[in-house]
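Quarterly update, task 2.4: magnesium ion-bound model.
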Amino acid sequence: MNEVTNEREAVRLANVSKVFGTNSHLTTAVRDVTLSAFAGELVLLLGPSGSGKTTLLTLMAGLIEPSEGSVLLFGSDVREYCEDELQKLRARRLGFIFQNFLLVDSLSVLENISLVLQFAGKGKAAARSAARGLLRQFALERFANAFPLRLSQGERQRVAIARAIANGANLITADEPTASLESGQGLVIIELLRSLAHEGNRGVIVASHDLRLVKFADRVVRLRDGAIERVDCGERLQPNSVESRWPTRGESQEKIQADRGKWVVSHD
Ligand SMILES: Nc1ncnc2c1ncn2[C@@H]1O[C@H](COP(=O)(O)OP(=O)(O)OP(=O)(O)O)[C@@H](O)[C@H]1O
Ligand SMILES: [Mg+2]
């Protein structure tokens, strides 16, 4: 069958199920999910622990194969790629962001980013120069030579996001990107992700159980026991207004506004 693809469609899952385990102990993590994500939108996968969010993100990245159904990445079934091609595709077009950042603690902030660029084939000097440019965009330049553990959690997450898009990824998955952050920093991160979708025209998929993220999403996919329970669109509530921000614990509005003004992402 010829798939009709839309070039804005970054990923499509068609009737996907994923079962883990062996005969005696099977877990169905994802049940018959049909879902697309497009360039320029932020999709929120919302569900309680164990509802299949991480499994869905992993399927979307072609890191695991579905037990049933198909996963199309940029219009092609992941099963049609050989492992080498899939790895290249991941390196060039996909960016992953994790709750715990997964930065290499023994490397400087600059090295964390430039290493990814070197893996993708850039020479050392070019990689470092591109990494510096990214750090500038994310208002992280002053941390270039610092080690990740000396940064705040929110700063670390910004480094992780800079790293995820370093190669120009056009599909970004973020697994609980705000879970380790206090609310002011969480706000900065979700606004940054939204800007990558809207101004950067990337497909951004965020998995979370945090209801505060709902108003930042273009589409909210609610999961329960591995299945889609409901899809909502247009739930955003004046996302740019200061009033719509989530409550903070002991942090002043001025401080949040200052943090938000710090990063400027260019989307050339
Ligand atoms: N590799 C695996 N082997 C066996 N079972 C797994 C595996 N990965 C996930 N599961 C199971 O699949 C179900 C969905 O897990 P998943 O990690 O996708 O949920 P989640 O929504 O991301 O949860 P959380 O919010 O806790 O991160 C869970 O019951 C989990 O135990
Ligand atoms: Mg998870």
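Highlight for this quarter: The domain at 9-103+169-262 is CATH 3.40.50.300 (Rossmann fold).
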